[in-house]
Amino acid sequence: xxxxxxxxxxxxxxxxxxxxxxxxxxxxxxxxxxxxxxxxxxxxxxxxxxxxxxxxxxxxxxxxxxxxxxxxxxxxxxxxxxxxxxxxxxxxxxxxxxxxxxxxxxxxxxxxxxxxxxxxxxxxxxxxxxxxxxxxxxxxxxxxxxxxxxxxxxxxxxxxxxxxxxxxxxxxxxxxxxxxxxxxxxxxxxxxxxxxxxxxxxxxxxxxxxxxxxxxxxxxxxxxxxxxxxxxxxxxxxxxxxxxxxxxxxxxxxxxxxxxxxxxxxxxxxxxxxxxxxxxxxxxxxxxxxxxxxxxxxxxxxxxxxxxxxxxxxxxxxxxxxxxxxxxxxxxxxxxxxxxxxxxxxxxxxxxxxxxxxxxxxxxxxxxxxxxxxxxxxxxxxxxxxxxxxxxxxxxxxxxxxxxxxxxxxxxxxxxxxxxxxxxxxxxxxxxxxxxxxxxxxxxxxxxxxxxxxxxxxxxxxxxxxxxxxxxxxxxxxxxxxxxxxxxxxxxxxxxxxxxxxxxxxxxxxxxxxxxxxxxxxxxxxxxxxxxxxxxxxxxxxxxxxxxxxxxxxxxxxxxxxxxxxxxxxxxxxxxxxxxxxxxxxxxxxxxxxxxxxxxxxxxxxxxxxxxxxxxxxxxxxxxxxxxxxxxxxxxxxxxxxxxxxxxxxxxxxxxxxxxxxxxxxxxxxxxxxxx
Length: 676
What we know:
disordered C terminus
């Protein structure tokens, strides 16, 4: 009985002692972590509407993940290499799952979502109190009672999301630096670019699944199953719509926990890939070398930290690479975080549709680009210096292509009293006290409530009352308002719920924007692997794990945390109309000025202009890197003939020492084998 059990154990240990098995498990970990991260970004708009918070707080929620990552990244990157790396990665996956579960918790602790509206199911048909009526008080105006704001417990529930995102960031910390250093230590150097390309592909497959999941959940109403959706007066294209964001986080929690299981079976070290097929090396020699290496690691667990940090700080190429990454990340994080919001407002599409289009157009070319980049590096054995030139030129090409996005913009939706006058004449934005007009002054309407209707004249109005409508027909989203005094048209002066659809020209511009984004993503992804190899090869092998961690630390503290917050604050400054809570306090923004960035950055668009300026500045230190690499011999430049000659000499000396220390019996055995 003991013999079969021993065989099973031996087979299991062999199965989990292959670098390719670890690569598969790590790739799935990259898929799961990027799945939850991308789903989080796709649901930020829904979270903003659910908790009625401004975009700056949404940016802080997004940056809280980086805060959690920051707490441990340096120490995990350095001390993690001295400990059991696969187990640490497995624990990190479990912690990520717990963080995702905590993010979904507010849905079960708060009541049903009540969106801002003048219409309720109770008066949908039986009462017309939300329509234009003379000689009545503004009963629809919100009451300025602070007690009601305190009673709205959901106003602080977003803190659960922040804490859950911090925990998710803590759990994600060991996966990338320890996983990549594990592969770099035990894989052939020529296979390393291909393996990293496979990992980066996993980081694209995860977002693809995450965006599809986000598109599905955004189409479901947040309280689906507990409310009658036929009574809803909003659709997924409405800025008050909230999708079932909590469903996807529960799925992400389960996936992350399941992902952790294989890592608890991997050994602390693997045989070097070059030696897996070397049957001539005695097993005792391998064990002796591993034991000596482990002792050296334990002795140097603390004393090498400060020298390594000093060495990295004096590495000019490495520090310039960090500066380039910080500037590039500041430009890209805006796209990752606020792309759904931007495209919704710019092109008038629903969150579900936008998230699906992002996944369809952006992620497949990135996936293909990563794989092709890794294969090119492996097949042509491109040196680090050539890789730096390739990365710089490709990134600059993609940057120049991005300028075409300035032409793919639409105008603001025509909303009477907000972006256009009641007579259909364009008016200056942010003009107060223009919501009321002669046609609706008699109606005693609320001027703050956002419940837009689209008139048959092509103009939208902030509510049916402000449109001067006196009658309504139908229920739910099919409600039609008639006899509207502010709507002058050749028809019957009627209106329907929601903003007016943007014209076909805007839809064509969206297609052009997505096509240009597809081309740009493919070109930039081709540059990603060569650029990352520059990071790995410009530091010494013993400093590699710490170097990756310090690079991640700097990009997070100078880009990942502040960028979403200040971009969110800048976006808030372009809000044309804020939603209103029951107590009269402002909630989430309902409509933005999508054309101009009012007082800042020379009237350029936030989403496009600011990232272009940041990324443009990053090419100056990138140019200095190319100059330095021509003069400096890199620690990781293993392709030069001098290094190969040195390694050959060291190998010969080592073999000579082994021959000297061999026993006479071993020599006699060797002579006997030679004669035979």
